[in-house]
Design goal:
There is one protein chain. The chain has about 60 residues and is an all-alpha fold. The chain contains one helix and no strands. The N and C termini lie far apart (about 75 Å). The model has no long low-confidence stretch (mean pLDDT about 80). Keywords: Membrane, Transmembrane, Transmembrane helix.
Length: about 60
């Protein structure tokens, strides 16, 4: 008998298990009315608003 590499099957089964458990937790949390975190709405910038300087720019003026 030849020995086969079982790593891909193990990784795939772990990913499927995590997905199933995560989906179940999400469904259960939504059923009990848990206030799950949601991303904030996108902010709109004004057309003439000044653009902020990048954090890497250093001003050496005193």
């Amino acid at each position: 008998m030849s020995q086969k590499n079982q790593a891909p099957a193990v990784i795939l089964s772990l990913m499927m298990t995590i997905a199933i458990v995560g989906t179940g937790l999400w469904w259960f949390a939504s059923r009990i009315g848990a206030n799950l975190p949601t991303p904030p709405p996108p902010t709109r910038t004004l057309p003439n608003a000044p653009t902020p300087k990048p954090a890497s720019s250093i001003d050496f003026r005193f």
